[in-house]
Write a structure and sequence with these properties.
This protein is mainly alpha-helical. It is built from eight helices and no strands. α2 runs antiparallel to α3, α2 packs antiparallel against α7 and α4 runs parallel beside α6.
Length: 240
């Protein structure tokens, strides 16, 4: 069962990335959707899940503070890269680093998703199935987001494909990892809270402005709203 879910997670992520690469000329629409999808994942999936997992040990105000810490940490990393590569000659390198930073965060999140699936199945098959569906419904979006971040920051299709492959393999490795150790629910909740802050920053401060400033069209805004709605519906259905 776990091997089949791992394969499904790989395929969902990889197919999402291929879609983004195939329609590179519509990048502003992909970025608009990606921004909405990332914000949707943060608010509708990571936020409630982090509270559910960690609230037995910490109060909600502490968990939301961790989300703020995640936002600030990612902002500092992003600003540090921007300040370190401030000259026009380093502009492309700056963008490249920002793309890697964002795609790397998504890949780590996907790895944690795999861990969540593995541990959920340690509890019971029913719990594992619910968590697996919740992960799979946004893995497709993760692939789109990973490719979109690399392409948006000046990366080539080949570079984007490499990162999509890494993101697709990450949940598989996460599932395999759970065969060898156990992670407490509290720690997993704190990690998800951190990534909630990361994704809010990436979606609102990077993808959303970039999708709009060169293509200020209604359709771009509609794609962002669509990204939020698709993740909302998918996560709601996964919770049934």
């Amino acid at each position: 069962m776990l091997l089949a879910i791992a394969l499904a997670a790989f395929l969902a992520t990889f197919l999402g990335g291929l879609l983004a690469l195939r329609f590179k000329d519509k990048l502003h629409l992909i970025l608009g959707f990606s921004a909405g999808a990332l914000i949707g994942v943060a608010f509708f999936d990571l936020l409630p899940e982090s509270i559910s997992l960690a609230s037995s040990t910490f109060d909600i105000s502490f968990i939301t503070s961790i989300i703020a810490v995640g936002f600030i940490v990612f902002m500092i990393l992003d600003r540090f890269i921007s300040l370190h590569h401030h000259s026009s000659e380093d502009h492309c390198e700056n963008e490249h680093h920002r793309g890697i930073l964002g795609a790397g965060s998504l890949s780590i999140h996907s790895f944690i998703d795999g861990i969540a699936i593995g541990f959920a199945f340690q509890v019971s098959a029913a719990v594992g199935a619910v968590v697996a569906v919740a992960v799979l419904v946004h893995d497709f979006s993760d692939g789109i987001n990973t490719a979109g971040l690399i392409l948006r920051n000046g990366g080539t299709k080949r570079t984007a494909l490499r990162w999509v492959l890494l993101d697709a393999v990450a949940p598989v490795l996460g599932i395999i990892t759970t065969f060898f150790f156990q992670l407490t629910e509290t720690l997993l909740g704190i990690l998800l809270a951190l990534f909630c802050g990361f994704f809010i920053y990436i979606g609102a401060s990077d993808l959303l402005p970039e999708s709009h400033h060169q293509h200020p069209k209604y359709i771009t805004t509609i794609m962002t709203v669509l990204g939020v709605l698709v993740l909302y519906v998918a996560i709601r259905l996964a919770g049934i």
